[in-house]
Amino acid sequence: MKPAVGDKVFILYKDQLSETTVLSLGRKYFKIKDKYGREEQVAFDTFKGGRWRIQDSFNDIVYISEQAYLDELEYSKLFSNLREVINFRNRVLPLSLDQLRRITAILEEQDL
């Protein structure tokens, strides 16, 4: 996924999402300014699930849209909740047979 110069993207830095603009495009990277005015390079090949990783940064993430960020938050929450329900120890799984069948069907669709 390649953005165009002038496109709005969103950078997540220390749990704060802020809007920024694509400044320039290269062959492998595009440049943005972070919230402190520093230019950052973002590699095209780090694109996955609506986001990129900033080069030389473990924590900073650039999202293609604010919705991509919100979707990732929702996915994490739902997955965590599902894991909590399934990862039971010494307790009965609080799901009905019908619910388990539906979950199994979804997992089979994904070849898991």
Write the layout of secondary structure elements.
Layout: E1 8-13, E2 16-25, E3 29-33, E4 39-43, E5 51-53, E6 61-63, H1 66-86, H2 97-109
Antiparallel strand pairs: 1-2, 1-6, 2-3, 3-4, 5-6
Q: What are the key terms here?
A:
single chain, 112 residues, alpha+beta, 2 domains, 6-stranded antiparallel β-sheet, 6 strands, 30% helix
Biggest beta sheet attributes: 6 strands, antiparallel
Using only C-alpha atoms, the radius of gyration works out to: 19 Å
Which sequence of strands runs across the widest sheet?
4-3-2-1-6-5
Which percent range describes the beta-strand content?
25-35%
What general form does the structure show? elongated
Q: Output mean pLDDT.
A: 85
Q: What number of domains? A: 2
- Please report the distance between the alpha carbons of the first and last residues: 27 Å
Sequence of secondary-structure elements: EEEEEEHH
- List how many beta strands DSSP finds: 6
SSE class: alpha+beta
Unreliable spans: none
Q: Count the helices. How many?
A: 2
The residue fraction in helices comes out at 25-40%
Describe this structure in words.
This protein has helices at 66-86, 97-109, and strands spanning 8-13, 16-25, 29-33, 39-43, 51-53, 61-63. The chain is of the alpha+beta class. The protein has two domains: 8-64, no CATH class; 67-109, no CATH class. It starts with 7 loop residues before the first strand and ends with a helix. The model has no long low-confidence stretch (mean pLDDT 85).
